[in-house]
Design a protein that fits this description.
With about 290 residues, this protein is of the alpha+beta class. Helices cover about 60% and strands about 10% of the residues. It is built from twelve helices and seven strands. It has a five-stranded antiparallel beta sheet with strand order 6-5-4-3-7. It has a two-stranded parallel ribbon with strand order 1-2. α5 packs parallel to α11 and α11 runs antiparallel to α12. The two termini are about 40 Å apart. It holds the Pfam family Transglut_core2.
Length: about 290
């Protein structure tokens, strides 16, 4: 028998009521990976007459294969050299939207970047660069905080935020970072407790590991790109009764940002009462920081 015939035979056995046979077949199909998903989907449609047991098993199997694939890709991204932020966010979105392509996110970000790039020139100051970015993002595209449904999971999936132009502090900041850095602007994320903002760094330190001493000013994308200084940031930390810690003011890396997004999703699904999703997202988080 060829491989295709083998796969078809394994899928047919999914209807076997014997749990031992089912778990053996399930393991073999999971080991084959995402390549078997199209055939599983075809059989799910063709064999619906087999009843709910077969359909349920196929649905669970497809989900588990997709989940394992995302987990594997997150591990590979973690171990990569560049930690491209858009790719990291694509992997998080794939957890909920397995068929989402990286290219669709890339095109959306690039399209907005081009609109801003047309307005920029080398003579502009840092504040002028930010003013143009803010105009295109918050006036032309009307990106805004989703204040009416702040804790909704869709605020953490970048494809939803790009489609609806609504998000939470970190997802709006991520769009700001992605577009800013594509424009060659020294914009970085800042992992502020209970919020998330971005920093505009002195260009001299753009390619190194900037700290709060290298930050020219901070930007709050959740508040339409309002600009503020270190003193206001420290006042906020003091108001929420946290120690004045440098990690709250320093630019952070992409792994920290993606981990914060996973935290948000875990909290969102926990509030909505989806314990299975909470456990799966914790597995992805452990894979990321493991």
């Amino acid at each position: 028998m060829n491989k295709q015939t083998d796969i078809e035979a394994l899928i047919k056995l999914l209807e076997d009521p014997d749990e031992n046979i089912y778990f053996q077949i399930r393991k073999e199909l999971i080991d084959l990976g995402p390549s078997v998903i199209p055939e599983l989907e075809n059989r799910w449609e063709e064999e619906s007459s087999l009843g709910l047991l077969f359909q349920s098993r196929v649905e669970d199997l497809i989900h588990d294969i997709q989940f394992n694939s995302v987990k594997k890709e997150i591990r590979e991204w973690r171990d990569s050299d560049d930690h491209d932020l858009l790719r990291g966010m694509h992997l998080i979105a794939k957890y909920q939207y397995p068929d989402l392509s990286f290219e669709s996110l890339d095109r959306a970000v690039e399209s907005i970047k081009k609109e801003i790039w047309i307005e920029l020139n080398s003579r502009l100051t840092a504040f002028e660069n930010v003013r143009i970015m803010n105009h295109v993002l918050f006036n032309v595209h009307n990106f805004q905080g989703n204040t009416s449904n702040y804790h909704a999971p869709q605020n953490s999936f970048l494809n939803n935020v790009l489609d609806t132009c609504k998000g939470n502090p970190i997802s709006l900041s991520i769009i700001y970072i992605l577009i800013g850095q594509r424009l060659g602007l020294p914009i970085y994320g800042v992992n502020l407790p209970r919020h998330f903002v971005v920093a505009y760094v002195d260009p001299v330190f753009q390619s190194d590991h900037p700290t709060e001493e290298n930050v020219l000013f901070y930007i709050n994308p959740f508040s339409k790109g309002s600009v503020f200084g270190i003193d206001e940031l420290k006042d906020f930390v003091q108001q929420i009764n946290l120690p004045d810690h440098s990690q709250f003011f320093n630019p952070c890396d992409s792994i920290t940002i993606v981990n914060r997004v996973l935290n948000n999703l875990i909290n969102s699904y926990n509030k909505l009462g989806y314990p299975e999703k909470v456990e799966e997202l914790k597995i992805l988080q452990n894979t990321l920081i493991g």
